[in-house]
Every structure is written in C-alpha cells, then in structure tokens.
Amino acid sequence: MRAAWVLLPALAALSAYYVYLPLPGTVSDSWKLMLLDATFRAVQQTCHLIHYFRLSHHLIVLNYLICTFDKLKSVSSEHINITDAVFDGVEVRVFEPPGKPDETLKRSVVYIHGGGWALASARTSLYNNLCRIMAESLNAVVVSVEYRLVPEVCFPEQFHDALRATKHFLQPDVLAEYSVDPNRIAISGDSAGGNLAAAVCQQLSKDEHLTIRPKLQALIYPVLQAFDFNTPSYQQNMNMPVLPRYVMINYWIDYFNGNHDLAHSLLINNHTALDVGQALSYRGRLNWTSLLPSSFKKNYKPVVQPTGMAEIIQEIPALLDVRAVPLLAENETLQLQPKTYILTCENDVLRDDGVMYAKRLENAGVEVTLDHFDDCFHGCMIFTIWPTDFSAGIQTRNSYIKWLDENL
C-alpha cells in the first residue's frame, strides 16, 4: 500500500512532464493542445516502434489508428445529401444541399484534405464535418477529393489525383449534373491539401484547353516549399504542436519517397547551399528577407550554407519541382492565379510559406486576402468536434467560410 502512494505521484509527475510544453501565452486552449500533442506523440512513437520491427509501415498504422478512433464519433448530416463517386478514376465525396425553389445553379468548392499527403481522409468525421458545414453555410456543392496516400503512392501521384478529379468536375456536363454554376467554383485545401490545391490551381491556369476555371482559391495554412527549413516561422515554432519542424521534414521525405538519413541535411538547408547550382535560379523567389513583414522576421537570420550537398537534389529532384513546391513558381504563372484567400497561424512552422505566397501573388497583380491569427496553431480548423474541439477551430473556420460566402 505504501508503495502505491509513492508510485502514483511518480506516475503523475512523469505524465505531467511528458504532456507539458512551454507554449506562447497567446495560444488558445493551451492545456488542451498539450494533451492533444502528447497523445499524438505517443501514438506516433508506437507506430515507429511497429515500423522498426518491420511489422508494418508507420504511416499505415498511424492512419489505421486515426480512422479507428474516428469511427467513435458521430456527425449529423440530416440536411445534406452525401454521396461517394469516382471522378476520372479518383474517389470523391460529394456534399449537396437541398435545392431551393427559386434557385437554378449553386456555387461549389473542390476541397482537398490535409494530413502530410499520408494521413486522414475525405471520409473521416473531421473533414466530413467541415465539408458538411461548408455545404450548409454556403448552400454550395462541396467535392472532397480522396486522393491516394503515402506510402501507397508518392509524389507526383497525389498531385495527379487531385488534378484529374478537379478537371473532371470542371467539365460542363458534370457541373450540369450537380447543378453547379461554372462561374462560381473555388478550389481549396488545408496544409498538404493546400499544397495540392495551389499546385492544381497553377496547372489549371496554364491549361489552354480548359474552358472553365476556378473563380477563387482558398488555402488554409498551406505547405508550399521545401527550399528553406529555417524561415522565421520554422525557427520560432520548431517544437510547436501539432507540427514540429522535424515532423514536417519527415512528411516531405515520405512524400518524395526519399531517404530519412537526409533529414538533418535538409534541416540545415544543405540541399540549397550556395554551391548547389540547381537551386540558384529559385533563390530569389523565396527570399523571406524581402517577402516577409518585419513583424514576422523579428530578429531571425537566414540560414544559407556556403557549401552543401548537391547530391540531395540529384537524388530528390522533386524538392525543386513546382508541382510539389508551388511557392517556387515563376511570376508568369502567378499572374494567372484567381482571387486568393490564405489563412495563416502565428504558432505554425508553415506561417511564412503562406505569407510569402500571398506577397508573391500580390506582387504579380493577384487580389489576395491574408487572414492571419495570432493565437492559433497548425491544423486547428478541423478540430471542432469533441474531444478535439478548440475555440481556434471555430474561429478560423468561421472566418474562412465568411470569406467564401462574400467572394464566391
């Protein structure tokens, strides 16, 4: 009995030590975020252990656990017709609000979910709930793309899936089938889905045979570059839940089917050192010292290695492929982009990706709304369902839907 009284406080202390993280005072729901992060870290460590013993790929196990937990949640969809379909070989989930007597055509959003190109699904309650609320609030047809995931496929297959599904939907006969106004279509996505949405939008803008194009693009804390892992936001938020810097680098490596032994070299920007000739022509397109406002740059310094490892780019050329890193697109492509919304969070390694893209688009003559939240964190917009419900999720989701409602 006496041993139990000693053991219980010790376990409580260890648990508190594992859960606690020093977070900025501005972060909303900080303790809830710590608990979410601790849970995710514990699950990830378990999955990596399974991977280590070669029982299964850690991302497959992690996605299985996410989907299993997700089945415990119930999401109502009484007023929205939800159907699954296949667009040019790509699975999609379509959310259709009921028609109104005085209405002929509806507006529409093609939505691409996040998850590091490896996790989640259009069918999980987190995204099912988001798309249902979008369909209800906007009275719009929402097409959620179920692209294939890492490790089943790697880049560029996720891009191809998203592009094929979107182009199929943009066909006049398909839009007519869903009673969609061809002049009121947006393409959108969060995180890795924001990456795919931006890349698809760039590709569509250059397709001379396309007769219908998106009116808007809306990118939620998008991941847009793998050129510089030492932007101010990467340095400031390197250990921030839900997306520490090392986790984002690992997602990139998995997306490119690369070697994880290169992770440290990527972290210190060895792949884009001054002596790496392949990277030279892109350097000006991602110069955060000129693209970021001083409030974001703070006192951080650029990390530019004089000598690095050119073989990294040779081994993983996709690191400089604009289909994977839309922020590196040339100005001629950016000029063709539609009116754009970009949501960023202060406590997010990807903050500067979105801010730099907004600035480059603005410089190219595109109308851009940069919606920045000082108290929010990466991934927050989908965390609106108990037990992962955050005030930051409601706040960002409402702002995003409001912009779509006013502009679509």
TrEMBL record:
The keyword ATP-binding does not apply. Transmembrane segments: none annotated. The keyword Magnesium does not apply. GO terms for cellular component: plasma membrane. Residues 109-267, 319-381 form the Alpha/beta hydrolase fold-3 domain. One of its GO terms (molecular function) is acetylalkylglycerol acetylhydrolase activity. It is a single-pass type II membrane protein. The active site is at 191, 348, 378. Its main location: membrane. One of its GO terms (biological process) is lipid catabolic process. It catalyses: cholesteryl (9Z-octadecenoate) + H2O = cholesterol + (9Z)-octadecenoate + H(+); a 1-O-alkyl-2-acetyl-sn-glycerol + H2O = a 1-O-alkyl-sn-glycerol + acetate + H(+); a cholesterol ester + H2O = cholesterol + a fatty acid + H(+); 1-O-hexadecyl-2-acetyl-sn-glycerol + H2O = 1-O-hexadecyl-sn-glycerol + acetate + H(+). Its EC number is 3.1.1.71. It is found in: Cell membrane; Microsome. Keywords: Cell membrane, Endoplasmic reticulum, Glycoprotein, Hydrolase, Lipid degradation, Lipid metabolism, Membrane, Microsome, Signal-anchor, Transmembrane, Transmembrane helix. It holds the Pfam family Abhydrolase_3. Belongs to the 'GDXG' lipolytic enzyme family. This is Neutral cholesterol ester hydrolase 1. It comes from Asarcornis scutulata. The lineage of its organism: Eukaryota, Metazoa, Chordata, Craniata, Vertebrata. The gene is Nceh1.
